[in-house]
Amino acid sequence: MSSREALHDAPGHSRLKAALVPRDRIAIAKIFIAAACLAPFAIVIAKIAGLASFGPHPVQEILHGMGKTGLNLLLITLAITPARKLTKQNWLIRLRRMLGLFAFFYLVLHLLAYAALDLRLDFATLGTDIVERPYITVGMLAIVLLIPLAVTSTRGWQRRLGRNWTRLHRLVYVCAVLGVIHFWWQVKADIREPLLYALMLAALLGYRAADAWRRRRRRSAVAAAASAAR
Amino acid sequence: MARTDNRIKPSEITPEEVFLNRRQIVQSAVALGLLPGLASQSFAAALPAEGDRLAGVSRWPGSLDEEPNSFEDVSTFNNFYEFGTRKEDPSRHAHRMKTDPWSVEVTGECDKGGKYTLEDILKPHSLEERVYRFRCVEAWSMVVPWVGFPLGDLLKRFEPSSRAKYVQFFTLADPKQMPGLHYPVLKWPYREGLRIDEAMHPLTLLTVGMYGRVLPNQNGAPLRLIVPWKYGFKSIKSIVRIHFTEQQPETSWNMAAPHEYGFYSNVNPNVDHPRWSQATERRIGGEGLAALLAPRQPTLMFNGYADEVASLYTGLDLVKNY
Prior knowledge:
heterodimer, A: mainly alpha, B: about 325 residues, alpha+beta, Sulfite Oxidase, Chain A, domain 2, eight-stranded mixed β-sheet, five-stranded mixed β-sheet, 10 helices, 13 strands
């Protein structure tokens, strides 16, 4: 333990700690995370500008790269709550909105790369794809469902929606499941990578289910104790 | 047979010096430590050693009149699952495959079966350079100057019997040389098959080289098929066995997903893969914004070889026999 931490952990400094250290920590963490989140986009821009080279299939490279980055960030966003609860580092929650919005940013780029670069805005084919190709259907649905979440991610909307905000934002679980299905259904034969994503998502959602069950049991135990005391 | 309208213009062939210079540039970069070790390893696999230029190669008059892809595109964007399922895996790992000595076992319905060394196989044949479009079932394509000779000329030497209705081919399957074999993503060894008339068709090329050189390992050295009117996975790589048979043989992709990959797998813009359209294709390669904005191209019936091969399928329902 460093002397600084020792100082802040000493009794009587708890208010100082709450007021200052987490804010520093959050600001620094946000800067690093934003830089890391922007890197894949910056690399694509550099390649378009000719500062670096694409591989042999540039359209697919962007399409898959943006989609994978978006899905990665979506899972990282979903990992915030378990990480916060398991480590008791409550300030982590303050990073979640930014991560979620970056996930949305990359998934929109993924959709744009598909519609504009791959299909070259051929809306007839886009329509056929959405209707006839289930992996496109679920992928498209996932991104569409993310739109209201991105729009209502601000503090203002959070206040306005109250408890409904939490309910609405549970849609992210549906989006993540659809995203993993989309990934799984488009691989040709080697399912190892989508399987890994499915397992990670199952762990993240499983944690929440177990946590909710534990809390409900605790609540009913408290209620039972209260009624017994009465 | 010859596609007189499709002659290749000399101006469209990348001059040899460009490739040699590129290699020198890469080698000096590696020597100076400008490129990391991994890159030097993959380039060593991509560019065959000196002395591998094929001699006495004649130009085939039917070559496609289109700009070939770069050697780098063709040798670093491969489906060769024995070395891994990502496109870049084969160029990274295929140097582990030993192609010398190499032999091919010939079995089944023929009089001259047995084990043939690569030298035995190649000796009587003269090599031709043929520029074909290679159309992958994944809806991308590339244009490649292959070097080889008609497969039929070889098969005739084995004197197939009248019961030889089909020919099956097998790829090498040695886990020591091929790390991808540890995972059963496909039925190993990789196998493919053709009807005997398809195999004997003069467009079906037994291929030993590309861009005037011996094939890089990741492109199927030392001996592979190129069946230009079929999806790429029919063009089996690194062949170690040829089997003549009366029954339609098993093929690896068909065994893995029978509703997606049929025995015929002829390039057909009118029959979609269940998960994507086959009406158009994307030519790989290119740089920067131009590559991103390049349009998709319409896919041609039998990959543009309808005049030559459509008669093989008279009366066959190509929707059912995808």
